[in-house]
Amino acid sequence: MYAAIAAARHGASVILVDKSLVGRGGATVMAQMTVAAAIGQQEPDDWTIHLADTIRAGRGLCNEELTALLCQEGPKRIFEMEQWGTRWARENGHIKQETAPGHSRRRCCYVDFLNTGPAVAATLRRKVDEISEIRRISNVTIIEVVTQDGRALGAVGLNLMDSEIVSFQAKAVILAAGGLTKLYARNSASANMGGEAYALALWAGAELVDMEFVQFFPIGHLAPRLVGMDPIMWDPFRYKLGGKLLNGRFEEFVDRYGGTDFGQYTATRDLASYSILKEAEAGRGSPHGGAYLDFRHIPEVQLRTAFGPVIDRLLRNGIDLTKMPVEVGPMAHYHMGGVRVNTDMETTIRGLYAAGEAVGGASGANRLSGNAITEAFVFGERAGTSAAGEAKAMKVKWQPRLVELVVQRLKALRIGRSKGSVTPAALQAELQNLMWEKTGPFRTGAKLAAALARIQQMQRDELQNVSVTEETSYNLDLQEWFELRAMLMTAEAVVRSALARKESRGAHQREDFPEADSNFLKNQVLALKGDDLVARWMPPVHLKSGEQNNG
Ligand SMILES: Cc1cc2nc3c(=O)[nH]c(=O)nc-3n(C[C@H](O)[C@H](O)[C@H](O)COP(=O)(O)OP(=O)(O)OC[C@H]3O[C@@H](n4cnc5c(N)ncnc54)[C@H](O)[C@@H]3O)c2cc1C
Question: How far is ligand 1, taken at its centre, from the CA of residue 118, in Å?
């Protein structure tokens, strides 16, 4: 939405296509916590300090030009969002900012009581609504980008309403289809995050970078069922209140793995994930394979003050924190890798851009909390501005023949019409379990190789033979088939990259290579050559000395 607004402001006529309702799908509406930007309202801060913190977290692998953009332009976007109507929480006349792990300053802005993502999405929806140059199209899944001679000229989609393939003529295309956490059985994501942007980029001839770096959040909500609330909401309360982390026998356990947090939660995210998974493996997990997070030792008044109206929302979900613990565990949460772009957000394919979580590189091997929404704002604005400039200058003529070729090819795909019992959704579920079990927070070469073999088998033998109904209206099977096709492509990219990185760094932890290895202080780039994914290594992009102080 930010990209669309920026493109329209720079004179472009924009079509904003979403596979669900525009502005209501994806991660942004679910993200309830904070947005990081060095606006220095709470204490002195500067974008260069934010940059240093982000680079430190990225363990040597950030594309520092992108990171610098994120940190330098973040403040502008926060104030712009405020002008457009986002009510950032305020205190004594200034925007209130909190700290979060890894940030050396209080720089995380929020909208009160877990409302950040819904509030920013609402602001952007309103803004998009006001701009007549933006046409919104919902319920269309983009399934291919149209290219010719290394240039993007449009896209092709599947209309959920009538199962027809529709084409879009465009002088520039922006991929803003979010992350990939739906690849994992345990994820904090919404239904639409199957990593389709990455597959679309590969099929269009663009490159991906750092696909092995999937961020796992240690204490995502597992049970009881939580409706309409952020599954990663527990973190700030855990810090504030000292929530206890207990195994299935109600014992504190993080000390068994080198932690020191009795009552006062101090374990880092990777240690917390590791200890929870190892306890579960040893048969001491909570019933859903995680751990208990317990606040029962905290007086109710204190809980009410800290949780505010959230405590009543929890009660409506049947969760009374004064009487019961909740079950939590690691889950896939964010993707640091993604489409390789330059600082104009352009891929190696002319006229093809990426924005938001779809972009790889700004966070290197690990992301600081709060940086992802900033990334969606900053990279969205940048991509929209660049794409509008490209569209204005574009001289190549639209050729209907090109689209016809893509449509014919898509129609010729052997989409499963068998009457068997395996649906695309069932195969998606198998893929999710496979990814969780074999390529989750702690990986080994053997598990990764097994995952790759199974993914290739699904691509080769099963994708074409799943059962898809012939319904023409609202045929979810068909939409899920295309989603599965993209999920398998993206899963292959993650697994291949994880196999090749024989070290542990940031979010990529290999039990067979538990240490970081300076020989791997490089980024991994993937591209499709024919049907094969081909990898190359590249030195990380560092800022030239002095560049950090230009702003
Ligand atoms: C539960 C949760 C909590 C989070 N909390 C925070 C937080 O507190 N702070 C923070 O900084 N970050 C947080 N994040 C991460 C952050 O929300 C995301 O990185 C960011 O919002 C991504 O924005 P985006 O615009 O790139 O993608 P999204 O908001 O995911 O939007 C992608 C859109 O693309 C659509 N789409 C997908 N595939 C297709 C296709 N093939 N064709 C057409 N449309 C398609 C989707 O329907 C969706 O509308 C959180 C994430 C989650 C899941």
Answer: 11
- What does the mean pLDDT of the chain come to? 93
For residue 453, the surrounding DSSP H or E stretch is helix 445-457
How deeply is 3 buried, as exposed, middle or buried, from its count of CB atoms within 10 A (0-12, 13-18, 19+)?
A: buried
At 256-272, the pLDDT tens digits run 988 776 666 667 777 88
Q: Is the CB of 199 under 6 A from ligand 1?
A: no
Predicted pLDDT at 416: 63
Q: In this model, does residue 223 exceed pLDDT 90?
A: yes
3-state per-residue secondary structure call for 471-485: CCCCCHHHHHHHHHH
Give the Cα separation of 66 and 362 in Å (integer): 5
For the beta carbon of residue 138, count every other beta carbon within 10 angstroms.
16
CA of 193 to the centre of ligand 1 (A): 7
- SS3 state of residue 246: strand
Say how far apart CA 147 and CA 406 lie, in whole Å. Answer: 9
Average pLDDT over residues 30-59: 95
Is the model's pLDDT at 414 over the cut of 80?
A: no
Q: State residue 178 phi and psi, 5-degree precision.
A: 75, -160
DSSP code, position 396: P
Q: If you ran DSSP here, which 8-state letter would residue 285 be given? A: S
